[in-house]
Amino acid sequence: MTGLERFQEAFLKPELIARYWPDILSGVAVTLQIAVAVVITGLALGLVLAVIRSYRSRLANAPIIVFVDVFRALPPLVAILIVYFGLPSLGINISGFAVLWLVLSLVLAAFAEEIFWSGIVSVRKGQWEAARSTGLSHWQTMTSVILPQAIRICVPPLTNRTIAVTKNTALGTVIGVGEIMNEGTSAMSLSGNATPLMMAAVAYILIFVPVVVLGSWIERRFAWKRA
Which terminal residue of the chain, N or C, has fewer Cβ atoms less than 10 Å from its own Cβ? Predict the structure, then answer.
């Protein structure tokens, strides 16, 4: 048996591909559901926190800063395990799907808040002063003048961080969420062959390569044009 034939036998066995592709496809659906939910809730929460922080209230800003620092420093896997195994001891029982969505949303929100905040503070003070001098409130100034400029600045780091966090959906396998990695490793254990794991890898590529391309397009679309 040649090296190529051994590789095919170990990673690309046709009968195993035919047997397990429905399971991998099921994992793809779960992964996409979690990823979309994480992106929507994480970015929305991060933006809300950054806007609240712009009011510069010490009472509000202190917990926001603590939240951001904790979830930026804490590995997502550790947070997932703490929430999944810790909440039931408090009488709170939620599914693995909900735990994965909640933790990854909070992680993305923490990074997104810092990115949005850096974009807000990078807008020149004169923009604030000019807007407020016309009679606009803080909220009107933020939504009509500051945020459009800040978000444009934030697009590149925000897209990169969003992609990085959503790929962590693979961590759902440690708490039994039926996403791609879970289905792939389960099938590999049953079959004693790495073909299902290779199928999972291909599924991740098919999902996230278009996302990376879309992120690059968004970065170019919203990039500042040079004179």
Answer: C
